[in-house]
Amino acid sequence: MTSLPEKTGKKLGLVIDLDTCVGCNACVTNCKEWNTGGHMAPLTDLNAYGAEADGVWFNRVHTYEVAGHESCGAAPSRTMHFPRSCLHCEKPDCVTVCPTGASYKRASDGIVLVNEDMCIGCKLCSWACPYGAREFDVFEGVMKKCTLCIDRIYNENLAEEDRVPACVATCPTSARHFGDLSDPNSDVSKLVKSRGGVDLMPELGYQPTNKYLPPRARKDTTAAMPAPELKPVTADGFLGWVDKMLSR
Amino acid sequence: MAFTAPVENDGVNTSPRVSDEVKTTTCYMCACRCGIKVHLIDDQVRYIQGNRDHPVNKGVLCGKGAAGIMQHTSPARLRKPLKRVGERGAGEFIEIEWDEALASATTLLANIRATDPKKLAFFTGRDQSQSLTGWWANQFGTPNYAAHGGFCSVNMATAGIYTIGGSFWEFGEPDWDHTKYFMMFGVAEDHDSNPIKIGLGKLKGRGAKFVSVNPAQTGYSAIADEWVGIRPGTDGLFVLAIIHELLKSGSVDLEYLIRYTNAPWLVIQAPGTQHDGLIARDDAGNPLCWDKKSNSAVSALLPDVAPAMRGSFEVGDKKAIPVFQLMAERYLDGSYAPDAVAARCGITTDTIKRIAAELAHVAFQQTIELPIAWTDWAGRRHEKMIGRPVSMHAMRGISAHTNGFHTCRAIHLLQMLLGSVDVPGGFRYKPPYPRPIPLGPKPAGKNGTRANQPLGGMPLGFVTAPEDLLVDANNQPIRIDKAYSWDHPMASHGLMHMVISNAVNGDPYTINTLFLYMANMAWNSSMNTRGTIDMLTAKNADGSYKIPNIIYSDAYFSETVAYADLILPDTTYLERWDCVSLLDRPISDAEAACDAIRQPVVEPDRDVRGFQTVLLDLGARLKLPGMTNTDGSPKYPGGYADYLVNHERAPGIGPLAGWRGADGSSQGHGAPNPKQLDAYIANGCFWRGEMPHDAKYFKFANASYLAWSKQMGFIPKAEQIVLQIYSEPLQKFRNAARGHGAVQPPDKNRARIDAYFDPLPIWYAPFEEAAISSTEYPLHALTQRPMHHYHSWGSQNAWLRQITAQNRLFMNRATAATQNINDDDWVWIISHAGRVKAQVRLVDGVNKDTVWTWNAIGKRKGTWGLKPDAPESTRGFLLNHVISEHLPDQQHSNSDPVTGQAAWFDVRVRIERAADHEQKDAGHDFAPLTPPPGISPGPDVLQYGANFREAAE
Amino acid sequence: MNPALSVIFFTTASGAGYGILVMLGAYAALGRLPQSMWFGLTTMVVALGLITAGLLSSTFHLGHPERAWRAFSQWRSSWLSREGIMALATYVPALGFGLAWVFPESVKVPLYLLGLLGPVMAVCALGTIYTTAMIYRSLKPIHHWYNVHVVPAYLVLGVMTGAVLLFALSLLFAEPLKFIAPISGLLLAAGLTAKWRYWSFVDSTAGTSTPGTATGLPGAQVKSIEWPHTEANYVVKEMGFQIARKHAGRLRTIAIWAGFVVPAVMIEFSILMPAGVQVVLAVCAALVMALGIITERWLFFAEAKHTVTLYYGAEKA
Ligand SMILES: Nc1nc2c(c(=O)[nH]1)N[C@H]1C(S)=C(S)[C@@H](COP(=O)(O)OP(=O)(O)OC[C@H]3O[C@@H](n4cnc5c(=O)[nH]c(N)nc54)[C@H](O)[C@@H]3O)O[C@H]1N2
Ligand SMILES: Nc1nc2c(c(=O)[nH]1)N[C@H]1C(S)=C(S)[C@@H](COP(=O)(O)OP(=O)(O)OC[C@H]3O[C@@H](n4cnc5c(=O)[nH]c(N)nc54)[C@H](O)[C@@H]3O)O[C@H]1N2
Ligand code: SF4
Ligand code: SF4
Ligand code: SF4
Ligand code: SF4
Ligand code: SF4
Ligand SMILES: [Mo]
Question: Is A139 buried (19+), middle (13-18) or exposed (0-12) by CB count in 10 A?
């Protein structure tokens, strides 16, 4: 059903820390390797070894230069890496526009999924997603997208600590966090609160579940890290000072 | 805590079967060597997961590691031994059986060994089995052996080992859990890929300050709290200016310097004599210091002396002054003041001063104490461990310059002055480091080579004086790469980058066979790529090749395959036994010694063999002593796995340290254990031997650590390791250059040795910069490793290549504007050595005098299982085409004068917008290479994993 | 947005088809529809043919046309689903109307029923055009579509194209329809006005999203320096279509002249002409208009910028 649930039981999602992401692409390829054999398998790659290679990926990392933000500190700009995947929005038009019911938002946990068997491949949902999170598998003729690793997070064949999305499990800098954002006491909710987590394009009203933690202010000024200025030691110079120090 | 699956009734199977079987092994998508769990369905790899228990990666994988499936299934995998039938480079090969391949190699090699073993040059690239390959060279009897170290980061290794008895690389790490101020110099990714990222994550979590000194603001620098966009090659000046500030303000840890470094040691002042600059020693050879209590020179190794740190003293008949005074006087000089260096470094005076102040502040005002009681080497008990929580890490941005050795020493000096080497919050060694300084043994081969005889020791080692050099009676290099000669005396890792050119030029001599393993010398690991290709195909007047035979082991169809005569195809990393040994490049962490194995998790579907097994087989066929029983039968018929268990380098010491002894109960030492590999597999394919709790810091002087290290066999004696601010071995070479001693450099080398073998860190302009005109070549050109590609390997990987299939030339927006260069324009990069075309991407986050690109993305057409239209070979490029292996004078190699480290990052260029008709692609004129039999570009449509879904449902 | 030919053809062709139905319905309601089998048959075949071809063409761009039936299920939330239903539903009155109109003898429907079926058909047709328009109009990520000017333009352009076609057909069969020329002219003027307002709106406004809001840093200047993958992917190809300003300007001129002005002039001029010339002018007007409207529709897609392009270097969307 493409009508949205009034309210979902949980709001499972990701919190991504832009202050910590080094742009290593671990989340990108780990997502690929898990999901190409997972719930939406395969993630087809076209022209895999030639020009214009074009594969289906659920997570991609951009690189930007940012100016006019507190995180630039004394420098005119800063480099920022930006991973982008489905935000499992609370009011996602990608679901409501779907004519077939293939796209849906789960009432239990808020995960937005595509049922490929019902998908006619009209692509409308990808037009309706402001964030570019849906990728059409041209070869299979169906729409694919991040499943929030629905085949991992509850998977009883995996050890309990492995029941997190592949991209989260692998992130070497721990820039990715997974949890229930409807629970104000969850670690992710607390993190969002303490770090001022934000929505992407809130103006469109999709109410993303995933939150981004903006890069923090840099500490490259004396104001940011007050260390007293170094003063020459004594009149008789450094070596004289050494003597004095050692004869105490 | 995991969530339980809710009732949704949408038909989604939330608990699909993940695999039939999970096997652990060690990743080799790069040299970080993380632990992995390979999930298999029907013997196919379903998923590769990080091993949570593993000491290196603790469960995470990087972008490469998670793309292992595509490496393992690469279309470029070699399938069977190949024999060249056409001209070199023409790609005409026939497939042959292993027996034929091994027999022909044996004939060739046996002949060399029976006549002149040094005519075999065995160079092994990105080898992780150097203790085997080095030993093989030794048994064969050739000194001409090395791996990638010389073109990689030997400056860093040598400077560290001679200074602090350990090094950056992955041989040490910041105290991620305690450091409050972390400075990173010239690192894009490094070998410790995942540990560094895990560590940076911790710093971010704790809010410690992270400073990145790097001309480019990418990757790690992007998340730094401060980015210092330094001009390349000037870090030494920057660091010495910080030292100037610290000294001037008395912000140094005197107690630490007295206790743990050679700051109090006395240096003889006798200009013009052979003793000048050497350490004053007693008859037993102990270094002397001036004891203020007794007012006499006493052994500096005695505990509880009160050494003078300044003053001039009579020691015997000579005048001597403490190291500390020499050091302080040098760097207090106004030429090291921040305002004197700022412009050259491209950093403001204020920034240098502020960083110095911050370092001092954190080190001395934010001291941390760990409640760990410990006893030092002299038996003194300390109730707690006091730490100066500033830490540093540096890598190739420092080392890949002709001044890299000294710059790296300067960084270590800074660490010592702050008292932050192996203290809580500082830089920490990983076992087997620290090791005695200087580290033994010396390189073997000094006495030349003998037919059918082993070399008598490992070819690579550490020289301490001119007497140790590998030069012949005429003072000429003994080694083909001129390592340990007067050209590069402290070439601890050899000079792989000079082998081909020296062999072709017959300088110092010609060779018969070049045996290469895992090094793409015909492309991305060579400077002057085109010249290298020409040399590989160069012929004598009689039509024979100047390098008569080339044997190569690769696993994939790389550019170099096309230039070899005999190809020994290797397995992929998931198909073989392998070992990450403490005798080699360890994977220890700061609190434990660690090693690991690889086990075959899938059977090869091709006629390929693990290189190490092949090497042992060749050794047995050649009847090399260590590899053959007295009855002539092979000693390790079970191949590398057999060797891993049964080989003993010294009694009780083998490739693997875990589960030794007949019953598997010992670690470090012990008899071979026939069940050792099973024990490793049961433990996830790694072993971690933790050191005692009180041994975890101050390792160089910690009685508990030193005893543990000795017991593990890492150090010969449990003696204090004194950190070397002043490096006496350097002075010995300098004295030789000044005309003292039995072994002296040829006249042409004297001035160079004298200038660069300064026992205290110095800075000088990189050689290429000094030799060319800065107006003609105003810019520095650098490469950086992309975190998701490993050198040349990634382009055959259908997933990784999608991320970067073309490398841009990144250029500062303001600099480009002065030349009317726009984003996306094609430009020529022109150096004194050549030119190459690239497409620019304008950015703000790069030093204005610097351009850079991603390393090793450009590929030669036809290779790596790619189609001819692949962007890697149409729009990508290699900076190597404009880097020369020689300095502009064509006299010296483009290497550090002390260690021979290849100076990749010294190259100077100018950028010119390409003509309008050239504004399309990189326009390479290298002829396409023809794939060998059995290899063709991969499929157009890849649907890996489709069958797993069915299997799960 | 990528101007896919199948969708351009679908919206223009079916729009015109529905436009004819609207016009026929209106004439029938007013009792002004001439009874003529050939005219009726041809007109109905053209109208339903355009509609059917359009609908079929729209299924060509589906990944799984064989599952197209599923698209009728989500009318509660999806305009695409509603469009499908409306399109299908419209066939019922349209076929009934057609039979009654073309074969009054055999069907034997009372005339008042035609007057009843006509408006029902017209409303259904308008409704279908409306649902089509709403598909675009409700896409928040696309500023060029998510605005009040889209629906009127679609409705007017649909009826307008239908009227011009009907004008040509009526002349071909010499079955004069009262006021069809002035009505067409008025519709062309209305169409141009609707489009003009649309263009001035999109030219003078931009979406509220910026690279800053897209990356969670509102107010900051965010510049893309590297794409996640160096080569273009589905999202870039589908949503990142770029057209140069100059090029777009030229095409707009074509759309304005060919789509509205020239046909209007030709039609009004044709009134003064003898019957033979009139027919030729009317058919030419229809053809010229087709070219113009296809151009207009191509631009409707090509000029539309999607917010996802903000991630790939666009400064506004
Ligand atoms: N411009 C520039 N050039 C550089 C550098 C730079 O920073 N800038 N860095 C330099 C440095 S530090 C290094 S270490 C070198 C590295 O350069 P190389 O040593 O050439 O390393 P790779 O390209 O990684 O791979 C070498 C070969 O190993 C093969 N190989 C991969 N896996 C296996 C295997 O399992 N078995 C076998 N037998 N072969 C295998 C690959 O197919 C490839 O042909 O590059 C150097 N070149
Ligand atoms: N993903 C991945 N990991 C790898 C490798 C790989 O190919 N890919 N290769 C492995 C190998 S063989 C090696 S040797 C290591 C090397 O690891 P790194 O040392 O991280 O290697 P580079 O990418 O050469 O990075 C050099 C950095 O130094 C900067 N730099 C250049 N010149 C200067 C300078 O003068 N001063 C300062 N401060 N910075 C400078 C460059 O901008 C760049 O960021 O990485 C290893 N790890
Ligand atoms: S794995 Fe983590 S650090 Fe790496 S790109 Fe993804 S979010 Fe960033
Ligand atoms: S991010 Fe896009 S695909 Fe995901 S729920 Fe939101 S609108 Fe839908
Ligand atoms: S492409 Fe598939 S999932 Fe997307 S809207 Fe169309 S039918 Fe629904
Ligand atoms: S949650 Fe799973 S599917 Fe979604 S981006 Fe992360 S790894 Fe990919
Ligand atoms: S860092 Fe990545 S590629 Fe290297 S060993 Fe670890 S997981 Fe493998
Ligand atoms: Mo390296």
Answer: middle
Q: Out of B810, B843, B871, whose CB is closest to C231?
A: B871
| Closest residue in C to B844 (Cα–Cα) | C225
Q: 3-class DSSP state for residue C14?
A: helix
Residue C278 in contact with residue C171, Cβ under 8 Å? yes
CB contact under 8 A, B360 and A230: yes
How far is Cα B228 from Cα B399, in angstroms, rounded to an integer?
18
- Which segments of chain A does DSSP mark as H helices, in order? 26-35, 93-96, 124-128, 150-153, 166-170, 187-195, 237-247
Residue C166: which of C43, C51, C293 has the closest Cα? C43
Query: Quick one: tokens of C11?
Result: 């919206």
Is residue C197 within 8 Å of A179, Cβ to Cβ? no
Give the span between the Cα atoms of B644 and C216, in whole angstroms. 53
Q: How many CB atoms lie within 10 A of CB C35?
A: 12
Q: What angle do CA B788, B791, B793 make, to 5 degrees?
A: 80
Residues in chain A: 248
Query: Is the CB of residue B847 less than 8 Å from the CB of residue B231?
Result: yes
From B796, B885, B881, B789, select the one nearest B558 (Cα to Cα). B796
d(C-alpha B397, C-alpha B393), whole Å: 11
Give one DSSP letter per residue of B20-32, joined into a string. Answer: SEEEEEE--SSTT
Interchain CB contact of B200 with A (< 8 Å): yes
Cβ within 8 Å of C, A 40-99: 51-57, 60-69, 79-80, 82, 84, 93, 95-99
What is the residue whose two structure tokens read 């006509």?
C118
Strands (E), A45-140: 45-46, 54-55, 59-67, 77-85, 103-105, 112-114, 134-137
Quick one: tokens of B745?
A: 């450099």
pTM, whole model, 2 decimals?
A: 0.97
Q: How far apart are CA B707 and CA B719, in angstroms?
A: 9
ipTM of this complex > 0.90?
yes
CB contact under 8 A, B2 and A163: yes
CA–CA dist B60, A166 (Å, integer):
10
d(CA B604, CA B808): 37
Nearest Cα neighbor of B237 from B819, B714, B761 is B761
How far apart, in whole angstroms, are the C-alpha atoms of residue C158 and residue A207? 35
Q: What gap in Å lies between CA A74 and CA B797, rounded to an integer?
A: 40
Ligand 5, atom 8, residue with closest C-alpha: A98
Give residue for tokens 């340290």.
B657
Mean pLDDT by 10 residues, chain B (953 residues): 91 95 97 97 96 98 98 97 96 97 98 98 94 97 94 95 95 97 97 97 96 98 97 98 97 96 98 97 97 95 92 95 97 97 98 98 97 97 97 98 98 98 98 92 91 96 96 96 96 95 96 98 95 97 97 98 98 97 94 98 97 98 97 97 97 96 94 98 98 98 98 95 98 98 96 98 98 97 98 97 98 97 98 97 98 98 96 97 93 94 98 96 92 93 94 73
| Residue B250 near chain A (CB below 8 Å) | yes
C-alpha–C-alpha distance, residues B872 and B736, integer Å = 50
- Whole-angstrom distance, CA of residue B787 vs CA of residue B790: 8
Helical residues (DSSP H) of B674-726, grouped into ranges? 676-682, 703-712
Token pair recorded at residue B105: 């190699």
| Backbone dihedral angles phi then psi of residue A231, each to the nearest 5 degrees | -115, 145
* Six-digit token string for B760: 């205290």
Residue B610 burial by Cβ neighbours in a 10 Å radius (0-12, 13-18, 19+)? buried
Calpha distance B464→B469 (Å, rounded): 9
